[in-house]
Amino acid sequence: DIVMTQTPLSLSVTPGQPASISCKSTQSLLHSDGKTRLYWYLQKPGQPPQLLIYEVSNRFSGVPDRFSGSGSGTDFTLKISRVEAEDVGVYYCMQSIQLRYTFGQGTKLEIK
Amino acid sequence: EVQLVESGGGLVQPGGSLRLSCSASGFTFSTYAMHWVRQAPGKGLDYVSAISSYGGSTFYTDAVKGRFTISRDNSKNTLYLQMSSLRAEDTAVYYCVKDREYEFWSGYPDYWGQGTVVTVSS
Which of A37, A67, B58, B118 has its CA 20 to 30 Å from the CA of residue B47? Predict the structure, then answer.
């Protein structure tokens, strides 16, 4: 299985400040079709995960533009330009280049 | 609006069986692959199984292979997960997840249901 490693595992951010989460995979997520199979999900408290970013940098439907994704190969980053109270929860990266899909351990975002 | 509603969870003894169902609406169910992902209490996300849009292709994580069976009834817009020989480590919230494509190896999970709780305990 591909191992996904997120850092940090938790962060506390003042509203209006930026936040950044790193995700590293044990092998390249670049598919032969040219797409990189890296995704970001947010699980808000008491809710199921919701898709934020697909294929590294594409915001899913309805996701605010303060969320952005970047990276290539094995190193990826999720950035929130200005954290809002509604952004609290656990963020997961996931790879889909190899079955079984695997997730990072999760990064818990709290508001200061 | 995409809606996925899981049911069938509950308390079961080790070695027992359960069948989970996921009723889908708001999209053309028969044209999308589907997944099951679980989350043990206080833990992260764990990928379980997938099925193609027509049901001809399936995948299982090693931990459930031979014990779980994924299936779908496109005429009823329903996804299933038949679970047998249940173990304590199968205790989790089970999420039904829609894929972006009709084959699960070419797309990605997009919409998630609210989940159903499975507890395996004596």
Answer: A67
Report the distance separating Cα B109 and Cα A88, nearest Å.
22
Q: Please judge whether B113 and A48 are an interchain contact, meaning their C-beta atoms are less than 8 angstroms apart.
A: yes
* B65 interfaces chain A, CB cutoff of 8 Å: no
- State which H helix or E strand residue B10 sits in: strand B10-12
pLDDT tens for chain A, 112 residues: list them. 999 999 999 999 999 999 999 999 999 999 999 999 999 999 999 999 999 999 999 999 999 999 999 999 999 999 999 999 999 999 999 999 998 999 999 999 999 9
CB atoms within 10 A of CB A14: 10
Dihedral of the CA atoms B112, B113, B116, B117 (nearest 10)? 40
Cβ distance B70 to B104 under 8 Å? no
At CA A52, angle to CA A48 and CA A54, rounded to 5?
120
Give B-chain residues touching A92 at CB under 8 angstroms. 44-45
Span A49-65, pLDDT tens digits: 999 999 999 999 999 99
Residues of chain A contacting residue B103, judged by C-beta atoms under 8 Å apart: none
Structure tokens at B33: 């692959």
